[in-house]
Amino acid sequence: MLPVEARLVTAISDGIEISALDWGGDGPSLLLAHPNGFPAGVFDPLARELRDQFRPIAVDVRGNGASAAPADLASCTFSNGARDVLAVLDVLGITELVVLGHSMGGAVALIADSMRPGLLRKVLLCEAIAFPASEHEAGTGGGLAGGARKRRAVWPDRATVLASYGSRPPLAALDPSVLAAYVQYGFRDRDDGSIELECAPEVEATYFEHAGRVDGALRAFDHLAVIDAPVTVVNGIDTNLPRDWFEMQANAARTTRLEVPGSHFFVQEHTDGTAALVREHLAW
């Protein structure tokens, strides 16, 4: 069930039905771009908090959340995810906006702006997967892809998932309201009464494997040197990713880097702190 504040939006991208949530609001449009494997609905607590100042929108890129997966999973790339975002923005008639891009979502947002220069007015990159060619081996996602393929896809019910995810890292550290949103929006009901991950393990693994491609994190990083918008780069103090990536991003965008409490998932761990970052750096 959708929260009262959110409106379901659909668009067609490369023949694939793409779903998005629009929480409404009278302020500037704010794109909340999700990490790989996370549904757009995971931003529900943050969007509710920010809709007094912004119009939050979140898009499920193909194969994630409520969006359909392509017949050929090879099309699950960062660049195609950017095309999915643009398809939704076209349906909504949005021609410019600000963005919080988390992990893969940061790369997707940068690539969308490279496809449509001037789309982004301000950018908040939160642990974005964007790095230069010299970091290719470190960012190919082989280990992450293997872990994704081992992920349990079918569970008896949401209460069981919530108890399991809430008892072990990394999701145990999430804001409880965010974890509840993840479990609500990240699973679909099956005919036999059980539930299944909206983002299939093979889809998540494919995105990880494509991260280091020319049309992935490399393209996103290259765009930082020419983007015509203020960029703020943020990483968690306890990140498991190379800090050099974020320093390189800040240098490429001619900006500074911030460190905040939390891990790679600090956006989901600290809703109030993330809302404060958005208000400070994306006000328009």
Overall description:
- The protein is of the alpha/beta class and 284 residues long.
- Helix content is 36%, strand content 19%.
- It has eleven helices and eleven strands.
- The strands form two sheets. An eight-stranded mixed β-sheet has the order 1-2-4-3-5-6-10-11, with helices on both faces.
- Helix 1 links the parallel strand 3 (29-33) and strand 4.
- The protein is globular.
- It starts with 6 loop residues before the first strand and ends with a helix.
- The mean pLDDT is 95.
Topology:
Layout: E1 7-13, E2 16-22, E3 29-33, H1 44-50, E4 55-59, H2 78-92, E5 97-102, H3 104-115, E6 120-126, H4 142-149, E7 154-155, H5 158-165, H6 176-185, E8 187-189, E9 195-197, H7 201-210, H8 217-223, E10 231-236, H9 243-252, E11 257-260, H10 266-269, H11 271-281
Parallel strand pairs: 3-4, 3-5, 5-6, 6-10, 10-11
Antiparallel strand pairs: 1-2, 2-4, 7-9, 8-9
Helix pairs in contact: 1-11, 2-3, 3-8, 4-7, 5-6
